[in-house]
Structure formats: C-alpha cells, structure tokens
Amino acid sequence: MQDYPHFHKNKTNLLLHIVMVPLFVVGVVYAPLAVMQGRWLAAGLALLLPLVSIAVQGAGHKQEPNPPLPFDGPGDFVKRIFSEQFYKFPKFVLSGEWLRAVRASR
After folding, report:
1. Distance CA 6, CA 13 (A)
2. pTM score above 0.85
3. What pLDDT sits at residue 66?
C-alpha cells in the first residue's frame, strides 16, 4: 500500500477509478447471484462490468506519470486486479489518500 499513491496521481485516472472500481465490484458480486437466480442475461451483463472497468482503468493508467509495474503472468494479473478492486483502492479512498491525490493533481 505504501507505493499505491505513487501509481495514482493523475486526476483523470483518479476520477475514472472512483467510478470504475465500484462497477467492477458490483459486476463480480452480482454475476454469481444472477446465476443462482437463473437470470442468465443479467449474469452475462454483470460479467461485462468488470471487463469494461479493467479496460477503462487501464486506459486511465496510461495517463499516469508512473505506469504500473508489469504483470508477472496471468496469476499475478488476477491477484493484483482483485486486491486493487476489493482492498487497495477502497482503503486508498477511505484513508483520505484519494482526495489528497485529487487535490494535489490540480
């Protein structure tokens, strides 16, 4: 977590993250619930949310002065994406670091 702010300084990227991370979480949580309810179309649409979220966040990261470290492989990709979406970014926001980063980006 210490280096997380180092990779999240660009205002556009920060604003994209504040919208896209919750969409990722909603999609990941809702998709299995929709499957359990037999709502296949809803499940399929819910699975699109994380994919769109990751694509948009990736585009946002291209605006950063410090690009993210490369992934070591598919397992590292999954681990880092899920830890960022469910733990690191929420902690970044709740700690006040996100707001400080937005203010500093002006």
Report:
1. 12
2. yes
3. 93
